[in-house]
Structure formats: structure tokens, C-alpha cells
Amino acid sequence: MLTWDQDIRNMELYKRSIYPKLQVHLRSKTALVLHGVRRSGKTCLMYQLYQSCKNAVYINFEDDRIAGILIGDLDELYQLYLELFNPEQPIMFLDEVQNVKGWEKFVSRLEHKVKFVISGSNAGLLSSEYSTTLTGRHIPVRIHPLTFNEFLEYHGAASLNPYISEQKARLNALLDDYFHYGGFPDASIQKNVELLKSYFHSILYRDIVPRFSIQHVDALERLVRYLISNPGNSISYRNLAILTGLKHEETVKNYLSYIEKAYLFTTLYKFDYSLRKQNANTKKIYPVDTGFIRHLGQNPTTNSGRMLESAICQELLRRDQDVFYWKHDNGKEVDFMINQNGTPVECIQVCETLEDPKTLKREISGLEIAGKAFVGVKKTLITRNPLTESLPGGIQCISALRWFME
Predict the structure, then answer these.
(1) Average pLDDT over residues 145-150
(2) Looking at the 3D structure of the chain, how many domains does it have?
């Protein structure tokens, strides 16, 4: 405990944009739960929060020195913490705590007198069993990989002005790097492809295979690599079963559930006012990070427009938007539909370039039809090089660079 304490307090750490929000939650008595994909920065944020606390304790349950720890050992660690630090208000930081079976009972028993900050790399951390045990007394905050603005901050480029030509060129080059290397902090900043690949391997073989007792490991990896290679495509359980060699569509459905629980992908539903139809309609799936698309997909030359679309999807999720896609009966689509309280408020179409008149017509027509179907909805077209002329129907054309920097 003392070694962790000394190491953490001597670290120099970058502040993430979500940090002020976490500080507010830290002041409450309710358990704070940081969840999200492995290597997205949860531990770094825990370190920052820890540095702001006096007489707190940090325990990393992925440290090999305490491997195999059982729930009964948590009480011994707690008593040792009290003896070493004698805290007036106990605060315990439990990192990757899902590695201890039954941990939620320990937290539930002590939460009336201990402030807990908890992290985990799969959605089991927020399972119904956990929520029931804590009877709702927890604040879940999802931690995503870096935003583009955070990426700029790490590269010392946050002050660049997109309205000055030379600086705009530099920003666009950094945006390309952001798509290319993704937003996982260490891999992205170091431009380390091998590190990125190791994350993928850890998510697959540490967060998914053992947790869900996967029998057809090769089929799972084929499924994941296919989905990474085809971001934003509609998914069919039957087609995926054929592609992966799995015999049953139900197995494919289960595997998709597992990889989403590990935060490796996000599933978008087709918007409909009927929840039954939402569940029945075809779904689309996007990987958590564009770096995976570029370096771990089956096709390294994946359409850069798909990369842009995937990055925008993840940014919308970071902004806590309720995101769907939409498709008219005539086949016209809108990439993203943003809802507030069950009502569509914005339709977003994404296209890398609009130089081809046919492409422009296609993208505009989808937004126009959506505007007629949902009166008053905002219509936005995001592209790398926006048009200078005005578009019909109140459609706003905005550069991807400007959109990400908002």
C-alpha cells in the first residue's frame, strides 16, 4: 500500500477533460464507478483523483503481487489500511476490482462509512447483480479513449487556430494521425502500433475469452476482425455465422453481446418510436477506436470515410448523446440520429468528400427526407472539406476538423 501511495503521489499526470466532473462526484458519499474499455485511461484518472485526497488507499487488483486474492482478503486489506493511514474519512480506490469474485458485497457492507472509487474493464462491473447489491448507490461514469482536443493537448497543439491556413494544415495532419493511431492514450501519443495490437489481444483474451468461457476462440477472433474491417455495416446473425464458421446464429448473437460488454464495439439501433421495432430492426456496429480499424482489420486500406464515420460515432458517445441511425422505407439513410427524451433533435450525415455531384446528391437527399419525417430536426453534413455554397432545406455543412474541436 505504501509503495503504491508513494509512486502515485510522485507522478506527473495530464488532466483529462472529464476530470472536473469526476472531482465533483468524488465529493459525494456515493461510490464512484469508472468503467470503459481497457487502456482508455481509467487508472490514470484514478491516480489524479488519488493525488487530490489525503490518507486514501489505492489497490491494483491486476498487480501480480496480490494475484488470486479472495473476497475474505479484502477485509484484511481494509484493516491494514486503517492501521497504516488512520484516515478520518476512509477513501478506497479499487482498480480493476472485477478480478475479485464477490467484491460488490464488500463494497456494499462498508459503503456507509467508506468512499469507494472503483474501476473495471468490462460491463459486468455494472451488472444487474452489482446494481442490486448496491441498490443503486453508485455513480457510473464511462471513460472513453482520448478526444481529439485531448489528443491536441498531449501534442502541445491545443492553441492552434483552425481559421489560420498554416495552423489549419497542421491541425488536419494531426486529425489524420488521430484517425490512424486512435485515442488510446499511450499508443496514440507514442504512435505505437505494436502497443495498440497488444491492447486488442488483451481485450480479446483477458476480458472476453476467460470471462465468458469462449469455446470457439478462432471463430470469435474472425468475427471481431470482420467487424473491425467493416465499421458501420448492417449486421446479420445468419451472415456472420457463415463468415465465422459458427453453426448457430444464437452463438453469434451471444458473442456480439460479449464483445460489447468488453466495450470493444458499440451497437447502433435503427430509430423507431416503437422499442419492439428497434430491437427487431437491423443494427449497425462500430469499433471503439479507429486505430483498430487501421491496424487490426482485414483490409488496411479501409475506406477513410468509414474511419471518419467511426470516429464521429465514438465522439457522439463521449458527448453522452443518445445515438441511433435511421433509414427510410425507400432505402435512404442517415448515419446518425440524435435523440433527446425519445425525440429526434439532429440528423448527422458523414461523408469524407463531396466533390462528386452524385455523392452530394445522395447525402443531401437522406437529410432532406429525414427533415420531412421529423419536422424541426437539425440537419448536419460533416465532411473533411466543406462546401462554401449554401445547401437546401437548412442543411448545415461543417468541416470534420471544426466539429471535433467544438
Answers:
(1) 96
(2) 1
